Every structure is written in structure tokens, then in C-alpha cells.
Amino acid sequence: MDRDIEQLNSALNSVKILRSNVRRVFESVSNGLRADHGEEIKENRYILELQELLTTVNNNLRDVENSVANLTPPPGAFNLGNTTYLSQETTQDRQQLYGQLVNSYKWTDKIREYSALAGNILASNSFNKTYKTFGTTKRRKTQTSNHNVPPEIIENLITSIDRLFSDVTITASRPFVPNPVIQVALGRVLRAVIAFKGLMIEWVVVKALSEGSDVWTESRYKVFRKVTENCHAAMCHFHSPLMPDLAVRSFMHWFHSYITLFSAPCKRCSKHLHSNLPPTWRDLRSLEPYHEECK
Questions:
Q1: CA 179 from chain center: how many Å?
Q2: How many of the other CB atoms lie within 10 Å of CB of 158?
Q3: Secondary structure string (H, E, C) spanning the chain
Q4: Partners of 171 in the beta sheet?
Q5: How far apart are CA 132 and CA 136, in angstroms?
Q6: What is the pTM of this model?
Q7: Rg (Cα) of the chain, in Å, rounded?
Q8: Are 200 and 178 in contact (CB under 8 A)?
Q9: Which tens digit of pLDDT belongs to each residue from 181-219?
Q10: Separation between Cα atoms, residue 113 and residue 122, nearest integer Å
Q11: Cα(98)–Cα(106) distance, rounded to whole angstroms?
Q12: Start-to-end Cα distance in the chain
């Protein structure tokens, strides 16, 4: 059993190395001739570079075939439980249930993973404390809920944020009275729809300027969907029940760094594009841009 697991790990590592080197081939083809190829006979150097990369990919493919050949085939068919009866359906609509079932399992796995990450972040920002003096428990003064605050306090917070940045335009509306929803136009780069619940940010959606302002519909562009995911992570990071106004200002300072989304290169690889995407992550402290793979 242990030997089978080792062979499976070896095969998976071979596939991982093959995918990595294939990506290097496509990156070299997409970048074309570069400055480090020199001024003279740079075409020949570029061709030699491609030949070396393709030779490496060919060797990796041979390693994958050898690793797969060493694997022990399963003794029989996998037990799919009651899902095996889906193949007996004659109607086309019901035959598609299996694919939908697989997608639902994948979605559930992602929800479980993201929930675990969010739980760890919120646990690290916990402010629950117990004060004991001479064997007795001293109760803390009850804090005012950050969800139920007068609208004037929220309006003052939004106004103060609007004055912080000259290249940011904020438009507020109240579809869920008294909790506002603001549209933040970051120059001519992007637009964010931020929903508040009292003094706390509850939801963020980042879209292109040409897209609608629906708070529940994600952007059709992958770059803005990535920025939305990172905004959710930053929203949990800056969460502070004791200082909600400072948490909102800190989040907005971090979000304002996306003004250079399409102009600033990655701090680590010094490239503007990686996997056809600009640096969509901003460091939570230094606000420096990074690609998802470089952070």
C-alpha cells in the first residue's frame, strides 16, 4: 500500500513538473524576443532557447509515461454509490445531472476551504477577553453594536473617506435603509460596490467602469473577479469590532492602491503580466503590487 502511494506521488510530481515546463514554453513564445537575447543573432538565441525548453518538455513527458506505467491499476470499477443509476436515465435533461452533481461537490469543497480560511482570520482578530481580580470575574462594559448606529455617523464616515483621495468618486445610496451602499470609482481604472451594515463593510464587488452596479452580480472579467476575492480577504483582515471607523479607513487606503492596477509591475518578478493578468494582489501593509503566483 505504501509503495502504491509513493508511485502515485511520483506520477503526480512528474505531471506537475511537466505542466510547469509547458507553461515556460508558452511564456517564452508569448514574450518573444527580449532584451537579454542581445542585439546580434538574437533570433538564433531565441530559437536555441525554445529548443532547450521543448527538449525539457519531451523528457518530462517521458518521465510521466514511465511513472504512469509503474502505477498499479485498480482492481475494479470505483464505487459511485447511487450515482451509478444516473447513467440509466433516458431523458437528456436527467443525463446531465451527474455533471451538475460533480460541480456541486466542487462548489461545496471550495465553500469548506474558504470558510476555514475566514474562520482562522476572524479567530486571529478576536477581542474577547476575561478580566479576573482576586478570584472574581469583572464584567466589561457592554460595547455599542456596530450594526445599529445613527445614519449621521455613517454619512460622516463616508464623507471623510471621500475627502481623503482626490482621484476617488463616491456615490452613496440607501436601498436597505439605514445601511448604505456606496459606489467607489477609482479614477478610470475600476468601480467597486461596497455594502455596509452599520459601520462595518459587509460585501464588496469590483467591476469595470462599463459594467452595471448590481451588488450581487460578479464581473464578467477575470481580473476584476480576482480583485474582488482579494477585497474579501482584506475586508476580513482589517475587521475590528472595537474600532470600526479605523477598519473602514484602513481598507479604503488599501483599496486605493489599485489605482495602479494596470500600470504598476509586480514587485517580485518586475513584470506587468503573468498568466495574462496584471498584479491583482496588494500587500496588506506595504500596499505593493504582486501577482497571485508571486505573493
A1: 27
A2: 20
A3: CHHHHHHHHHHHHHHHHHHHHHHHHHHHHHHCCCHHHCCCCHHHHHHHHHHHHHHHHHHHHHHHHHHHHCCCCCCCCCCCHHHHHHHHCCCHHHHCHHHHHHHHHHHHHHHHHHHHHHHHHHHHCCCCCCEEECCEEECCCCCCCCCCCCHHHHHHHHHHHHHHCCCEEEEEEEEECCEEEEEEEECCCEEEEEEEECCEEEEEEEECCCCCCCCCCCCCCHHHHHHHHHHHHHHHHCCCCCCHHHHHHHHHHHHHHHHHCCCCCCCCCCCCCECCECCCEECCCCCCEECCCCC
A4: 183
A5: 6
A6: 0.52
A7: 26
A8: no
A9: 999 999 999 999 999 888 889 899 999 999 987 878 899
A10: 14
A11: 13
A12: 37
CA angle 125, 131, 137 (to 5 degrees): 135
How far apart CA 99 and CA 28 sit, in angstroms, is 36
Query: How many beta carbons lie within 10 A of that of residue 288, not counting itself?
Result: 15
Q: Look at the alpha carbons of 61, 63, 64, 69 in this order and tell me if their dihedral is positive or negative.
A: positive
Residue 18 CB neighbour total at 10 angstroms = 19
Contacts of 32 (CB under 8 A, 6+ apart): 46
C-alpha cell of residue 18: 511537466
* Rounded Cα distance, 206 and 193, in Å: 6
Query: pLDDT band for position 93 (50/70/90)?
Result: low
Q: Give the type of residue at 190.
A: L
Beta-carbon count within 10 A of 108 CB: 10
User: Which residue is it, cell 481604472?
Assistant: 189
192 DSSP β-pair partners: 184, 206
**Cα separation, 157 vs 221, whole angstroms:** 31
Q: For residues 126-155, b (16+ Cβ closer than 10 Å) or e, as one string?
A: eeeeeeeeeeeeeeeeeeeebeebeeeebe
**14-35 residue pLDDT tens:** 889 989 989 888 888 887 777 7
83: Cβ contacts below 8 Å, ≥ 6 apart: 98, 101
